[in-house]
From TrEMBL:
Family under the similarity heading: Belongs to the mesothelin family.
Signal listed as a keyword: yes
Primary location recorded for the protein, binned into one broad class: membrane
Keywords linked to the UniProt accession: Cell adhesion, Glycoprotein, Membrane, Signal
Protein name (record): MSLN protein
GO cellular component, one term: membrane
Gene Ontology biological process terms from the UniProt entry: cell-matrix adhesion
Superkingdom of origin organism: Eukaryota
InterPro entries recorded: Mesothelin, Stereocilin-rel
Organism, scientific name: Sylvia atricapilla
Length: 167
């Protein structure tokens, strides 16, 4: 339906009021299509607010969006800073494990909103959390409040981390 809507909306060229349409529509565009109405950073900020699960994780368009976002944001290496994490929004759910590890705890809040993870992402999240080098501290110091903040990540914690959390 979104693909069809995009065809209808763009029949006469790219509309200037593209931001007034559902954010999910942008998942079917490329930043170059959007260029006339705003910057690539603005484009990916809007994409980051969309429900990226409209496209299956394996869909080449979804993978291409992440690659183009990293290029647009000029991310050096695999470390994502807080500002870029905010722009990426829901696209952080597709970051490979090495990005999660390199970025430390900065991505945890955004990752907790993801619906599912690949095994390499789960392992990276566990590595970051067990290191204790996050704003949450080591698992042995966590409280019920910490767990509520990490609620979306609880299924990934694993036995070794769960054992350390005080009752």
């Amino acid at each position: 339906q979104l693909s069809c809507l995009l065809k209808m909306v763009t029949l006469q060229g790219m509309p200037k009021d593209l931001d007034s349409y559902p954010k999910e529509l942008l998942l079917f565009l490329s930043p170059s299509d959007y260029a006339g109405t705003g910057s690539c950073r603005q484009f990916f900020s809007s994409v980051g607010e969309a429900n990226v699960d409209v496209l299956p994780r394996e869909d080449p368009r979804r993978q291409q969006l992440l690659l183009e976002a990293l290029e647009c944001l000029e991310v050096p290496g695999t470390e994502i800073n807080e500002e870029n994490a905010e722009v990426l929004g829901r696209l952080v759910c597709d970051l490979p494990g090495e990005y999660i590890r390199s970025s430390g705890g900065r991505l945890l809040k955004d990752l907790s909103q993801c619906g599912s993870f690949l095994p390499e992402q789960e392992e990276a999240i566990r590595d970051v959390l067990s290191s204790g080098n996050t704003t949450f501290g080591p698992p042995a110091a966590w409280s019920a409040f910490t767990l509520s903040q990490l609620s979306g990540l609880i299924p990934v914690l694993g036995h070794s981390i769960l054992q350390q959390i005080p009752k």
